[in-house]
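Figure-free illustration: sequence to structure, shown twice.
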Amino acid sequence: MINKLIDRIQKTHAPVVAGLDPMLSYVPEHVQKRAYAEYGETLRGAAEAIWQFNREIVDHICDLIPAVKPQIAMYEQFGVEGLAAYKKTVDYCRSKGLIVIGDVKRGDIGSTSAAYAVGHLGKVQVGNTACTGFDEDFITVNPYLGSDGVMPFIEVCKEEKKGLFILVKTSNPSSGEFQDQLVDGTPLYELVGEKVARWGEEHMGDTYSYVGAVVGATYPAQGKILRRVMPKSFILVPGYGAQGGRGKDLVHFFNEDGLGAIVNSSRGIIAAYKQEAYGKFGAENFGEASRAAVEDMIADIRGALEAR
């Protein structure tokens, strides 16, 4: 799957992933009203609203980018109905030729990680039938329970030819409370990066490993260090746009071949119609606003890479 992701990045010339993290406050009123008219102001109505919102955005941007990243918590808040909307979103995006990175941040003791891995990336045996669960292409994984919490995901990826992005240095402001702590003089995030690199060496695609890392755009200096520590790991870079990251801050996440990283924007894309820069589109044309935001993001990152 890492080979497929790289191929899509090269074909679109866009190392960009759109985060499909819909809060109801992002969904325009006319979309909500349409969903509530059919299902009422219920969890099912809310789930239908976010599904219709996602579909409209995906239809407007799917030809521009290689991948999307739905954050499962934004769907789980609506219970089982929300998870059904998550699954519909995953399936629809894949039908449009997009790589799907499930932002699920799973990681637990070995047997539990194995169940998570099967549910999101593999197949579960039901009698004589092997059934797929959510069926994403990549997922995010929390490594802080150690190797026995990560290896079940790697094994399923090996079987299914899928991939992982392991949390190394996250974009949130308080990440340093633990991730920056020194262990024998080395920051913990760097030690985790070294571990990701070792796992990756044993699980390679053609040029990059299918064991990647998450490193926030809000920490460019750490990104530069981690790029050197993990030369063959693809880096998923959250924090572009709404969290402050810009193209000029991101060049160190990429290798000299122009590959090695894919940059995520969530609110900056899906809620673009709420921004002054795209206000001319209005809520009725929120999909067009999202497309314009993606085009601007691609131009920003491409320009920064060409200028370095």
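We now fold a second protein in the same way, so the two outputs can be compared directly.
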Amino acid sequence: MPVITSIDDLKAIYRRRAPRMFYDYAESGSYTEQTFRENTTDFHDIRLRQRVAVDMTNRNLATEMVGLPVAMPVGLAPVGMTGMQSADGEIKAARAAEAAGVPFCLSTMSICSIEDLAVHTTKPFMFQLYVMKDQEFLAAIIERAKRANCSALVLTLDLQILGQRHKDLKNGLSAPPKLTIPTMANLATKWRWGSEMLRTRRRFFGNIVGHAKGVTDTANLASWTAEQFDPQLDWGKIAAIRDMWGGKLILKGILDAEDARMAADFGADAIVVSNHGGRQLDGALSSIRMLPQIVAAVGDRVEVHLDSGIRSGQDVLKAVALGAQGTWIGRAWIYGLGALGQRGVTAALDVIRKELDVTMALCGERDIRNVGRHNLLLRRGWEDEYV
């Protein structure tokens, strides 16, 4: 196994090994990709406050996310088509998360089904829900998540309509890939990926094919999916989903203080400050930019998490210092999965854990629960630069 010292090391291997359409699917945003880029670069504007002559022994990264114990305030965010990045990818990632003591969240648009993942894991995982127009399918998939003993429902609010991602259209993104001449030429160079995919039966959207009415194969899956995201999703429908679910509910895709207050009033167990990794509204502010405003708006009425842009343990510490009680990584673990399978996801989590631990110590803290704004140095006016 190569020496991995950063998430960028995994990304470089991933780029060599993954088919182009799936690499581009992960490593892209909508339209000009401004928000996609700034999700990461805005972390660079936040400086850390070094402290010395403090006891750095007996450090603790363990905390809780929505009342669940976690080894560090990091979870594996839901990512669609994970099983196309590496054969049986959702299972590999969930097992790595289990071993690391952090939560894993399965996407509605996963290749592995809810039931399949439940059979191949030993701890409850979370389930991310896209709200579809088909009410029969919606009720059924919520019930399936209940039967699988999912620990929380993560309801995505920022994908009522699909933002345009130029690379996906140009690559003809599909699962499994359509065998066009350019695609076959690219796949011919990805022998490691291809040999693993030939040995698995998991090549379709397992939560949808055979479960949604009329969706029996990839031919009718594409048309069903294109028409199903519900543009009428509002607080009334969210309330109906909450009542159907009956368990812990996390609202993902909050990027505005007013929406955050409404989510707190609604009674969500947590909100995720997120812009869908820069894949929806291009030109929106980065998640880390919006985090302080949202934390100030809701106070302690609802747990606040953050995703979009985290590529290191230092990023995690900065988010926690600005008020996040948990963080979610997406691309960081996908790089690891596409590079080295389950070992790669483990490597990504190890990199983030070690960076978080060392950075916390050098900032003069021994417990992640004591990290706060006092550990940061921000350029004057940074928090209200955009109004």
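Summary for the second example: The longest strand covers residues 249-254.
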